[in-house]
Amino acid sequence: xxxxxxxxxxxxxxxxxxxxxxxxxxxxxxxxxxxxxxxxxxxxxxxxxxxxxxxxxxxxxxxxxxxxxxxxxxxxxxxxxxxxxxxxxxxxxxxxxxxxxxxxxxxxxxxxxxxxxxxxxxxxxxxxxxxxxxxxxxxxxxxxxxxxxxxxxxxxxxxxxxxxxxxxxxxxxxxxxxxxxxxxxxxxxxxxxxxxxxxxxxxxxxxxxxxxxxxxxxxxxxxxxxxxxxxxxxxxxxxxxxxxx
Amino acid sequence: xxxxxxxxxxxxxxxxxxxxxxxxxxxxxxxxxxxxxxxxxxxxxxxxxxxxxxxxxxxxxxxxxxxxxxxxxxxxxxxxxxxxxxxxxxxxxxxxxxxxxxxxxxxxxxxxxxxxxxxxxxxxxxxxxxxxxxxxxxxxxxxxxxxxxxxxxxxxxxxxxxxxxxxxxxxxxxxxxxxxxxxxxxxxxxxxx
Lengths: 245, 193
Known about the structure:
Shape of chain A: elongated
Distance between the termini of chain B: 48 Å
Helix content of chain B: over 70%
Shape of chain B: elongated
Largest sheet of chain A: none
CATH class of the domain at 53-180 in chain B: Mainly Alpha
Number of domains of chain A: 2
Oligomer: heterodimer
CATH topology of the domain at 53-180 in chain B: Tetracycline Repressor, domain 2
């Protein structure tokens, strides 16, 4: 078999590398066409131009493993795109506008995500349930906070990172024709009207006696509302009951 | 009659609490309400799906009705938001049926909740507009735009507080004067109590 991954020098796992990428991209194309439920491993193999056996060698866990790899890959791609545009920003307004616009653009123009929202919205929306959204916010916040750190102190950066992530999620889930987040002009107006004055007010207050900033480290056990500073974005912050996976 | 519709909703809610959203049938609801299936279909011609949607809407409105009761006597915008956030978060956490369904059937509940919450932005926003006018806004801020923005943030923080502890009054006061209002009003009232 002419599986390039098997021939690549220096690889310890025979099917690592190119095959994985081909399978993930093949799966993405299938999802964009027919959603997750109707996508079979045969479809993925055909799309990736390899055999079912090759797919299994790369992903012994089968369809579930392929789908997890798809999510991981797309989340990484999303954050690397964000890193590029936020890293190039020249001031605080710019980093917020660029980050929010780019995040909205990535999410709303993603072919597989778009198909899922049309064909199987529950697959996406169930990930946004209350406690799971806390996990998504924590991951996003952990990633974007350092980019704001060029202009804000760490506690402010973290507050603003979470705030901006909420704004993006809110306008994506509940669109407003006056605030189209993929339009940088709209985002700039939103940032100038509400966010920057808000940040200025936060900074002014930071030196003065006043309410304490929110806990920046995860509170100890027993705090019911405690955020879980976890990178696992399916963690429930509600109770200790725990969710399936 | 209005009473029968209400009776069916309450019966369906009892079934959902026991068996969840997916497993509740028209038959169950009818039995629980002590009515015939035909009667249930007369009120909910769409059958099971319509019934379950109606129960979610009804509970959602009940929740916001209680929230309204909690905040409408407040004397300032800050107090409305502080009391509202604390009460709403606590109510959501203590809502056993909601928590159970969120745990076991997020895929069924979340699409419905997303629809409801999109409707609610307008309701909360309309409630806030007079408070914003009374409070006074920052220069160039439009009351309706500001109310819409604050309403979105309220919904976001009560469902997923992120790294905020909404059981802590000091944090709630900081959140209200920060993310919720700092960009919207000219100045916020100092923290009292």
